Amino acid sequence: MCSALSNRVSEIKKLLAESGNADRGGFAREMKGFLEECEAEITVVREEQTRVMELVRETTEYYQAGASRDKGAAPFQLFVIVKDFLDMVTLVCAEISSKL
Predict the structure, then answer these.
(1) Domain FH2: where (predicted)?
(2) Torsion angle in degrees (nearest 10) through CA of 30, 35, 38, 39
């Protein structure tokens, strides 16, 4: 999503520059400020995404040693496994409750 947002911001900047009104008019000024804020926010989001993906990689490496070296593996596969496990635990707990 970050790449798509960056591309859209670039397209809008280009359109604004091509319009010839980039330096005058309230709309152009406001849009220019908006685009600067967008670029700053996208930078923050990219940094956060990098940090989170590093944590995901470390977690996967910890619980599935060697799994992060497999380039074809989905980075969030560990969380799917954990979700499936928790679903099974919930099912078993419900069965135990119904038998009591």
Answers:
(1) 1-100
(2) -140
Q: Is 20 helix (H, G, I), strand (E, B) or coil?
A: coil
pLDDT in tens, 58-76: 888 888 876 656 666 678 8
Q: Are 72 and 42 in contact (CB under 8 A)?
A: no
pLDDT value for 90: 96
Q: Which two tokens stand for residue 12?
A: 């809008």
Across the range 72-98, mean pLDDT stands at 90
pTM: 0.66
Name, in order, each residue with C-beta under 8 angstroms of 74's C-beta and a sequence gap of 6 or more: 80
